[in-house]
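Notes from the 1:1 (GR / supervisor)

We went over the backlog. Supervisor wanted to see one worked example end to end before approving the batch request, so GR pasted a single chain during the call. The sequence is below; no edits were made to it. Supervisor asked that the structure be written out right there so they could see what the output format looks like.
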Amino acid sequence: MTQEKRENFMFTNDTIFYKKLWSLMLPMMLQNLMLALVAVADAFMLGGMDQNYMSAVSLATQIQFIQNMLLSAATGGLAILGAQYWGRGNIKTLDDIFCMALRLCGLVSIAFFIACICFPQYLMLFFTDEPVLIGYGVQYLRIAGFSYLLTGISQCYLVVMKISEHALTTALISSATVGINIALNAILIYGKLGITPMGVRGAATATLSARMIELACCILISSRPGYIRLYLTRLFQRNQELARDFRKCAMPILGASLFWGVGFTSYSSFMGHLGVDAAAANSVAAVVRDIICCLSAGISGAAGIMVGNELGAGNLKRGKLYGTRMMKISFVCGVAMMVLMGISAPFILHFVKLTPQAAVYLKGMFVVLCVYMIGRSVNEITINGVFGSGGDTMFDVYSLAVTMWGIAIPLAALGTYRFHWPVIVVYACTCIDEVGKIPWTLYHFRKYKWVKDLTHTGMEQKEKS
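Structure output shown during the call:
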């Protein structure tokens, strides 16, 4: 085996590579897992008190889902450019990118805050015309809307910590605030410790309290030496060249987020039109899928930072090597996720109370998800992690337009409304996009368009002079 092939082999004895991978992957995986668990806790606690509470809050939180799609463009641009400038050691430019992301996230957060506080009933009308659900949703949004004002700022802080080698800190902050959120849910929703039961208002208050604590932790910890912090004097300074680079990275991420978000929401709509048993089985399958996919999400985040650091430092050969290893690791991760899905199926079916028909649907969905996991892992790590690290963000838009909107959604819609296919067949159609993207993703990977240094050495020289 030649030296080049030996270096590209995935299981090479490169302790530096794997030490950094584990140090980034595990905290990010934990952070994603905790965020998934808080959604599960909300559903179980509210559902245990009143089914309408759970339904109303589930619909109301779609507002935050839309906000997060918009915020992801700004935080994604921060992650891509920030990782490269951190790799080059240019802290001043990283500060400027941080301020740029804060401005954008702040504007989005203010807009959603005003909408939730002033027009909550109109927002709920987008999702339901049931007066009881609208009423509960309005109660939730008028309190939770204040948390939407803080979310964008917190996300910027957490992202800049990850790319500046403080991923463990972000995991600890997120885990602590999620734990606080769940504990406050139990106290406020059900009325523990002498507090009057608050129902949906309790869930909203718990969310707001957790977000306030999260932001306070971010600001306090970032004031310590070795952390990137906000300098108010530079918050509104503009760098036209840097802003242009930021838009090139962020706008495709926004397009991809909107494509994916609207498309993914439509999948739930298809299952809902196939009956209550199909909807119930899909809800359980979605929770299990999201928890297991925390593994690929952690590796994807690590890949974006590790490859981006090398590319930004000008080490294009090593960045290409790291990207190749990450692509190979994505297949191993996919197989691991497939096994986890298969192992978890009997336990989930044993503990979740479903009708016999819904249980049959869930078994079939688990089989489909076992195959889906390989595609999800390969695409998430390669597209979001490796491609994104070099600013190659347009590929995600194209691939979603073709595989999701050109194939998966039309097939699922036809199967649901026109041909009345079996539930599992329709469900398989909603998962076909991830599997179908694999050959295209690998073909694009071999073009190596993602091997780019996005930094401007001219700006560094100007700063030093």
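Supervisor's comment: The first helix runs from residue 3 to 8.
Batch request approved.
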